[in-house]
């Protein structure tokens, strides 16, 4: 199978720098299923084409796998060596891994520059209707050309096959093109050559960050990529819905961002983070997980304190994690300091073993964004399964809303809030959580206190019995 990538962006031969493969020579790489070869049929200042050719060893793919006692000829004689499939995605990640990750030391500006790119796949199996090519590529901005091949040219009456030579064109960064190919090639084939588990779900959400949540065919892409495993694709779709909601909030006009405007005059965000940080310090925690870390404001403050030796931030929005990574400036920090922090893309409503083993968890202005069924799921994820020794949790105090004259009566501080609790409602909820899961609870107000309305933010401190 063959993948070719071309550009006319001058000087076109710089494509070799982006791919980290020299145009002047043939390069070969050993893979678990055969060999990959990279070569350039053309490399000039005007036009450059790089080719990735896979030489699949069908025998090697079967060797070592459990098989029936009877000989299965289909294990050795099939279309895997000749059509683009999940094998091509593996080759892209292993041979073009640096380009896929959007890194290039020699041409750093070119990495983030959209350039005219053409990719041709020979051949691509399209299981389903031919319109799938357009429905998957065109929403991403590609012009698509496809040539369908007959089953046998000598016997036209046999009809058409499901194999196509496909060409896509667009002006994009090389990393975007490779990412789209990495995710979508196995989707067309609707089959994978290896076991699909939780790690594949994480790969899909990571590689699909920034585009998959808004794709009109995200459900079909998710189902096919995860081999129709219901438990995985349902979880993936739920997380994509959360990410799409976060992206919509990012696009809100300034007039809709009431919460930020209301709290700015009080410097409430700074007071809130200061109170959370003080609570985490006093707990003696050395490892902290920030659930719903957003753009990393609290993570940055935790990183400056040497008490915290292991810091993890989790968020469902890929865009927020990208901003957090920039805010933390990990690439400019000493290696030992940068190694203390890790960012995870994940949902807060599904059990995740990565959340376990921490001294403390911070949940800052998160729960009010969850619908009641999701809040119930989050309670179990945090207090039953993750079970940190300490939990520091904040949420708005609904009673204080009357103190803001610009906030209409009966409205929440933020358009995405699903609820805002009074002090009594919050205390009842927190105490029930403590009773159910074995935590002692105490409460602290954050911000200026009104005799009748209380403080704008309420904080609960959970400590495991």
Describe the model:
It comes from Blastopirellula sediminis. It catalyses: small RNA 3'-end nucleotide + S-adenosyl-L-methionine = small RNA 3'-end 2'-O-methylnucleotide + S-adenosyl-L-homocysteine + H(+). Its cofactor is Mg(2+). This is Small RNA 2'-O-methyltransferase. Helix 3 (86-95) runs antiparallel to helix 7 and helix 9 packs antiparallel against helix 10 (230-250). The longest helix is centred in the middle third of the chain and has 21 residues, at 230-250. The chain has helices at residues 15-19, 58-62, 86-95, 97-100, 108-111, 132-137, 174-189, 198-207, 218-225, 230-250, 258-264, 268-283, 297-303, 318-328, 335-338, 372-386, 423-437, and strands spanning 2-7, 27-31, 34-43, 48-56, 115-125, 143-150, 160-172, 287-291, 310-315, 341-345, 360-364, 390-396, 439-446, 457-464. The strands form 2 sheets. The chain has a 7-stranded antiparallel β-sheet with strand order 2-3-4-1-5-7-6. It has a 7-stranded mixed β-sheet with strand order 10-9-8-11-12-14-13, sandwiched between helices. It is of the alpha/beta class and 465 residues long. It contains 17 helices and 14 strands. A hairpin with a 4-residue loop joins strand 3 (34-43) and strand 4 (48-56). It folds into 3 domains: 2-66 and 75-189, 2-Layer Sandwich (c-terminal autoproteolytic domain of nucleoporin nup98); 195-251, no CATH class; 257-464, Rossmann fold, CATH 3.40.50. The radius of gyration is 26 Å and the shape is elongated.
């Amino acid at each position: 199978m063959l993948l070719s990538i071309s550009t006319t962006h001058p000087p076109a031969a710089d494509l070799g720098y982006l791919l980290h493969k020299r145009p002047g020579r043939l390069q070969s790489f050993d893979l678990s299923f055969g060999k990959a070869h990279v070569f350039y049929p053309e490399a000039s200042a005007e036009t450059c084409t790089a080719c990735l050719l896979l030489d699949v060893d069908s025998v090697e793919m079967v060797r070592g796998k459990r098989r029936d006692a009877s000989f299965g000829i289909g294990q050795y004689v099939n279309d895997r060596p000749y059509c683009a499939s999940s094998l091509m995605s593996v080759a892209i990640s292993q041979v073009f891994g640096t380009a896929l990750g959007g890194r290039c030391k020699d041409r750093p500006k070119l990495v983030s520059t959209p350039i005219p790119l053409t990719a041709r796949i020979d051949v691509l199996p399209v299981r389903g209707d031919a319109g799938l090519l357009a429905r998957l590529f065109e929403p991403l901005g590609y012009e698509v050309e496809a040539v369908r091949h007959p089953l046998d040219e000598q016997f036209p009456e046999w009809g058409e096959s499901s194999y196509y030579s496909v060409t896509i064109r667009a002006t994009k960064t090389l990393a975007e093109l490779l990412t789209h190919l990495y995710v979508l090639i196995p989707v067309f084939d609707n089959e994978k050559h290896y076991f699909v588990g939780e790690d594949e779900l994480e790969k899909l959400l990571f590689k699909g960050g920034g585009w998959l949540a808004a794709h009109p065919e995200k459900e079909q892409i998710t189902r096919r990529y995860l081999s129709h495993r219901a438990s995985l694709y349902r979880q993936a779709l739920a997380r994509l819905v959360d990410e799409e909601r976060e992206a919509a909030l990012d696009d809100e006009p300034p007039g809709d961002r009431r919460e930020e405007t209301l709290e700015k005059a009080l410097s409430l965000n700074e007071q809130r983070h200061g109170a959370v940080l003080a609570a985490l310090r006093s707990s003696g925690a050395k490892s902290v997980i920030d659930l719903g870390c957003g753009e990393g404001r609290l993570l940055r403050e935790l990183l400056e304190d040497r008490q915290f030796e292991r810091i993890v931030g989790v968020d469902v929005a890929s865009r927020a994690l990208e901003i957090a990574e920039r805010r933390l400036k990990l690439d400019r920090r000493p290696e030992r300091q940068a190694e203390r922090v890790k960012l995870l893309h994940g949902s807060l409503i599904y059990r995740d073993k990565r959340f376990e083993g921490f001294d403390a968890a911070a949940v800052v202005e998160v729960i009010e964004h969850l619908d009641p069924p999701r809040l119930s799921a989050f309670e179990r994820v945090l207090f039953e399964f993750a079970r940190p020794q300490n939990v520091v949790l904040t949420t708005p105090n609904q009673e204080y809303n009357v103190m803001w004259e610009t906030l209409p009566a009966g409205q929440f501080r933020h358009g995405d809030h699903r609820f805002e609790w009074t002090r009594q409602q919050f205390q009842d909820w927190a105490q029930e959580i403590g009773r159910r899961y074995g935590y002692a609870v105490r409460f602290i107000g954050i911000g200026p206190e009104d005799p009748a309305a209380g403080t704008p933010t309420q904080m609960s401190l959970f400590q495991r019995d």
